Amino acid sequence: MKVSRGFTLIEMLIVITIISIVTTIALVGYKDYGAQLNVRRSANEIALAIREAQANALAVKGYDHDNNSGTPLLFTSWGVYFNKTVSTTQYNIFVDLDGDKNYDSGESVKTINILNGVKILNLAKGLETSETDDSSITRLDIVYQRPNPDTTLKANGATCSGAVISGTCPDLEIILQGVTGTQRTVVVWSTGQVSIE
């Protein structure tokens, strides 16, 4: 009797088909996972930038706006500025040199780019509270003041309308979207708290 050792052509085709299906599923899932990871990373970077501005204000970090190694300005407010009409892929950390609680030209300390196809989809106020949702916002100014540890949140460069807490918005949202449609929302409260949803 002759014993056959090896694979038949049909067995080989079945194995190749199974490997191809598993590989395709893994590659498609990896692409989606990578896109979700990029959005999550970008949301965390925005939250860290907001925390950096808050820490600089609370630590009374001086700022030498002339870069001449002179005496730095103390008790300056620090903030983060978003303007989706200017760019949906970058934002600024700034020092409020004139004390108007708005970002003005020449106050930028650092411009941060949002990478990997993630963009600012929307800027909003009141999505987390009982306020009327307002998604028509194009500009946000988040400012941490010194010497008092106050937080000012402004939409479109002005104090928000509606119910006001200490002259500021109760909450502002930065909504990010990745290339596959994955979204994350960075929420900033008037108390200074920052959360990611």
From TrEMBL:
Pfam families: N_methyl. It comes from the Bacteria. Keywords: Membrane, Transmembrane, Transmembrane helix. The chain crosses the membrane at residues 6-30. InterPro entries: N_methyl_site (IPR012902), Pilin-like (IPR045584). The keyword Membrane applies. This is General secretion pathway GspH domain-containing protein. It comes from Candidatus Giovannonibacteria bacterium RIFCSPLOWO2_12_FULL_44_15.
